[in-house]
Each structure stands twice: as C-alpha cells, then as structure tokens.
Amino acid sequence: MSEQVDVQPNIEQSISNDPMIKLNGVHKWFGDFHVLKDINLTVNRGERIVICGPSGSGKSTLIRCINHLEEHQHGQIFVEGTELTGDLKHVEQIRREVGMVFQQFNLFPHLTILDNLTLAPIWVRKLPKKEAEELAMKYLERVKIPEQANKYPGQLSGGQQQRVAIARSLCMNPKIMLFDEPTSALDPEMIKEVLDAMIELAHEGMTMLCVTHEMGFAKTVANRVIFMDEGQIIEEKEPIEFFNNPQNDRTKLFLSQILAH
Amino acid sequence: MSGKLPYKSIEYFFMSLNGKSIDLLRWMKSNLFSSSLNTLLTIISLWIIYVSVPPFIQWALLDANWVGSSRDDCSREGACWVYIGFWFKQIMYGRYPETEVWRVNVSYILLVGALIPLFISGFKHKGLLTLFLLFVYPIISYFLFIGDSFGLPLVETSLWGGLFLTLVISLVGIVASLPIGIMLALGRRSSMPIVSAISIGFIEIWRGVPLITVLFMSSVMFPLFLPEGMNFDKLIRALVGVMLFSAAYIAEVVRGGLQAVPKGQIEAAEALGMSYWNTMGLIVMPQALKMVIPGIVNSFIALFKDTTLVLTIGLFDLLGTIQIIGTNADWLGFHIEGYVFTAFIFWTFCFGMSRYSMHLEKKLHTGH
What we know:
The complex is a heterodimer. By secondary structure, chain A is an alpha/beta fold. Chain A has 9 helices and 10 strands. In chain A, α3 (about 115-125) packs across α4. Chain A starts with 18 loop residues before the first strand and ends with a helix. Chain B is mostly helical. Among the domains of chain B are: about 45-75, no CATH class; about 85-95 and about 155-365, Orthogonal Bundle (MetI-like fold), CATH 1.10.3720. Chain B contains 15 helices and no strands. The longest helix of chain B has 30 residues, at about 335-365. The chains are: A alpha/beta, B mainly alpha. The interface of A and B includes residues 165, 168, 169 and 172 of A.
C-alpha cells in the first residue's frame, strides 16, 4: 500500500469482477430463532457494501459469519475461494485476510496503543518487533493519532479508540474489512473522524462491508446498499436507486424512519 | 494557611490550636458519639482496648526478659524472650544439622538478592530474573538443601523443619499451584467436553476434601497402593497434596476473572487471526489475573497458614517445632511466648503478601 492518499480517485474503476466473498444459501439459527434465512451474496474485489436494517434483522450476524465469529449451520461461505468450515486452520487463515472493527472498539485495555497494534503482527504474522512498530506508526499516522502511541486505550476518547481499532486491523494487511456499526457507540461529534478514516480506506480500494445507519456514508462511499429485515436480504441496490426509489414497503418504512429528521 | 504571619504571635498559635481542638471535638461528636448506641459502642470499645492492650504491652515488652542464655534468666514477671533466643536455631531450621545451616542461608540470600531488583522500577532484565527465580533457583536450592552431590553431605528431608520447612512447603505450593490452577480454570471453560469434565471433576474433588484428609491420604493411604519397595519421600507427598489442593482453589478464583473479561476481547483477538493460546495468554489471562489479584493472594495467604497442618503427618514446620520445644522438660511453661512468636512470624509474612498485592493492583491499573 502506498503512503500517498489519492485525493480524487475514480472509485468506480477499482471494482473488478473478482468475487472475494461468496455466500450461497446461508442459514443460521440461534436456538429456535431463525436469524439468517437463505442469504445469497457476492462481494467483488474493491466493492464497498453498506448493510442496513432494523435491529434484530441479522445484519451483524451476517458479517460476523464471514470471519467465523458466528458459525452458519447451512449453506456455504467462501472467502477468497476458501470455504469456511469448522476447520480451525482455514478459519485462522481467513481471519488474517479479513479485518474487523467492532461497535465497542474492543481495544485491549491492558496494552498501550502501540502494543495493541503490534501484538497480532508479531504473534500471528511473525514480524520482528521493530518492523511491527514501524508498521503500527505508519497506520497510526494514517488515522491521525501517532502522538497517542504510548497511552492506554482508557485514556483516549471514543473516536480516537475507534480509529486505533481501524489501524489495528490494518496492521494485519487485510484484503477485506468488516465494520460492525463502527459509529453507533460514539458521541455525535466523534462520528465524523471515524467516518473520514473509513472513507479514506474506501478511496484506497479496500473491499468493505459496513453495517451502519450512516446514510450519508452509504450515499458517498457504497457501491451497493443492502437492506435486511427478519434475517432476509429484502433489497439490494446502488445507493442512488436505493434512496430515491425503494421498492419494498419495509425498506420504505425503514428509510422514512431514519431519514425523517 | 498562607502568608508569613500565621504562628508568629503566641495568641495566634493558641487560636489555631484552639481551632484544631474544636475540629477534634466536632470529629468525635460526628463519628464516635453521634447517637446513644454509638456512644455505648465507643465506650465498650475503649474499655476493651484498656483492659487488653496495656497489660499485653506490659507483658510482652516492658516486663519482658530479653537477654540471657538459660531458664534462670527469666524473671517470670513478663514474657521471657530468652526462650525464643535459646531455641532460635530449631525454630528457624528444625533439626537441620548446624554445620550445614549455611546452605539454607545461601538459598535465602539468593532469593532475597534476586527479588530486590524485581521491585526496583527501571531494572531492565526483570524477565530474565523472573525466569531464573522460577526455573533455575528451585534447582539450585534443591541441591543445596538436600545435598548428596557437589561434595555436600546428604541432609534427609526428615531433618528439615521450623520456619525453613514452612517456607519450602508454602513457596513450592504457591509457585506450582498458580500455573496448575490457571490450566484447570481454562480447562473448566473449554468447549471440549472431556477436558472440561476432567477439570470440573478434579476441582470439585480437591475442593470438597479437607486439607488434613489430603495430607493423611498422602502419608498413610497412598503408600499402600504403591508396589512393594517403591516409596516417595514424605515431604514430596505432602508437597504434591498441598499443591493440588491449592490449585483447585486458585482455579475457581481464576475462573471468576475469566468470566469477567468481556467477550468482545476474545472476539477482537480472534478477528485478528490469533490462536486460542495466544488469545488466552496475551489478551484474556493478563486481564483476568489482574482482576483476581486479591482473590489469588487470599488463597496464597490461606495456603501459607494451612501448611501448619503438615504437623499431623509428622513433619515439623514452624508451629510443629514450637510445640515440640514446648514439651522440653527444661523449658516447661513457656508455650505462650512460643505461640505469640509464631503468630508474629505468620502475621509478618501474610501482611507482607497483602501489601504486595495492593502494590501490584495499583501498578497494573491502566485507567479503564
């Protein structure tokens, strides 16, 4: 990855017809609760997808299945051609390629910011400590908080913590980034700094799946918006189409509720 | 109080003193005499302190005999610490041969010498030193204590005793039970049914049996199951018993800490591709152990005091030695001094552990 950030990329060109994630008829149950119903989805290299929907619709579960934090019970999930099964070797291999950012940041509170970033590169990618630290500083600069490197997560604001979490994932050089409501736990004035970091990532051509209710983000960054309800994909469209011309009644209702004010 | 003048004039001095005594009265009124019940409790407490503390100080310090070499030096008006001095070697080392006691002292010096740098912040090789203490030091000490090699004469474990034996049993118990306890705690939470069943079974069996039973089993029952001619040292059997007994308690304390680590921490580590052992060792355990430091130290203090039970299987630790010398015909009637001294030593060690745990908690607090 280059240090330079292209300010005016043509985002559309970076998508290829090269499926990175493929879900075939995926079902999942939590006990009796049918949380994912026959999900079919293909994500191409460089594509940025926003998933939205009411709470309990299964959107978080869907992206958590992609790095096997949740196990699907039926159907197939392929990440870069490798099928996700219970096999731990495959799971760990896929997780190295797939970064994830959580709603609650989930930074490691007993480690400094720098150690948070270098831990996985050192222990999983087996990088030498010095190299891992250089890598970490590079990404901390990219999310604009290199001066916080020696603090502990508890000393940072929510927005800063979430940017550290993004940098921590990037240190593993992932090919795909999953975002699980990355701005939902933030105070309003901190949402923008996190979204900016995500937009920058999008400009660099990262393949992204974002569960979010930030419709502004969806409009400017997404190639596709997916609307889920009750465990199903209800509607799947380009953002302009999605916001201006929703077909399904449930989509219309949802949009009217979140865009009302 | 700022400015140059405050205590310059005597008047001002008395005024401020007066102010302070008024503060004291106010404090007493709100904390000691705020209601009739509190007043009563205060008076009872003061009375208990009055009848117990001054006589004890009188006995233990003011009227006590400190110097001397035989029973004749005891005036019997107060405590006779000559008694402790006379038996000091036995209290410290048991029946360990007097000419070989230096070996124990060398080990003590080695231990203290290696521990001190660990408390100095800024000392660079703490990791190496810890490894030395955990793996090299016990081996050196073992050969020092037991001898029979490197030109040192053999000292049978049956001769070990006194505070020395207490420290051997409790230190081995403490150092060994922590890793065993951690593994049991992880095992109990494992998703593999066999591992978790074995861990639960182990913990519940050891936790459900009194230590004294464990010790009896190890010294009386266990040899019956061994083939003819095969025998383990009595001390080793007791050590294993104490170790496993304590491990079961540590396991439950650690499990409490494991459950308090948020699930998101494990998910974040897993999402970074970290293996189970890396996740547990680098993310979950450090946080869990930090939370349960008070519980772990509590278990260690209990273990330290429980070592006195080895007396029942014929090992003479600090308390056992005190009881033996208490029956010496030349020194009958000094058991109170013996027990007070024993209590003082136990209290010193336990208080030290408690303070150290507070220090650790403060040091490891990273503001979250």
